[in-house]
Design brief:
The structure is a homodimer of 125-residue chains. Chain A has two domains: 74 residues; 51 residues, Chorismate Mutase Domain, subunit A (Up-down Bundle), CATH 1.20.59.10. Helices cover 70% and strands 0% of the residues of chain A. Chain A has five helices and no strands. The first copy, chain A, is elongated.
Chain lengths: 125, 125
Amino acid sequence: MAAHRTLGKPGLDASVPAMANLTEPAPDHAGPEDPVLASYRKSIDNIDAALIHMLAERFRITQAVGEYKATASLPPADPNREARQIARLRSLAVEANLDPEFSEKFIRFVIDEVIRHHEKARNGG
Amino acid sequence: MAAHRTLGKPGLDASVPAMANLTEPAPDHAGPEDPVLASYRKSIDNIDAALIHMLAERFRITQAVGEYKATASLPPADPNREARQIARLRSLAVEANLDPEFSEKFIRFVIDEVIRHHEKARNGG
C-alpha cells in the first residue's frame, strides 16, 4: 500500500501529512494527489459520516413520530410546527455563518421526506 | 417568564417532563400540547441544531476548497470524487439503517450547493 510513496525519495513527501497518506489510498482525480485538497477532503468525509448518522437518528425518531401520529389519528403534516422549525433553523444558521436560505432548503428537503414516510405509514406501510 | 405555567395548579403538569415545559413555551399545534410528541420534537430539534452546525462547518471547509481550487486552476466539480463520496455514504447509510437512496439525494443536494459556491468564487465571488 502506497509503496510508490515510501520508495525512492521520501523527503519529497515531507509536506504531505502522514494521516492523509494512510487514509487516502488513491487520488480522487486524474493528476497526482494534491496534499492540500486531500487534507480538506478527509475533514469533509468525517463531517459527511457524522451527517449521515445524525440523519439516520433523526429518521428513527420521525418514524416513531409517524407511528404515533397514525395511532393517535394526528395529521402527518403540521404547518405551524414546520414554520417554527424553519424560523429557528434560519436563526441558528445565521449564528453559525451558514446561508439561511440554504438551511431552509435543507430542512424542507428533510421534512418533505419525513412527510412521505408518514403518509406511507398511514397507508399501512 | 412562563408565569402562567407556574401559577394555579402545577400538579396537573406532572405527566409533562419538566424540560419540555421549560424549553417548549407554547404548543406547536392547535390542540393541547401532546407530551409524547413534545418529547420527540425536543430530540428532533437537538439533532437539527447539530445538523445545521455540521453543515456550517462543512461549508467553511468547502469554501476554503473553492478558494484553493480557483487559485490552483482546478475545476469546480470532480465527478470521480463525487462518485466515491456517494458510494461511501450509501454504504454508511445502509449500516446506519438509513435509506441509501435518501443519503444519495442528500449528498447530491449538498454537493450541488457547493459547486454553485465554487463557480461563484471562480467568477470573482
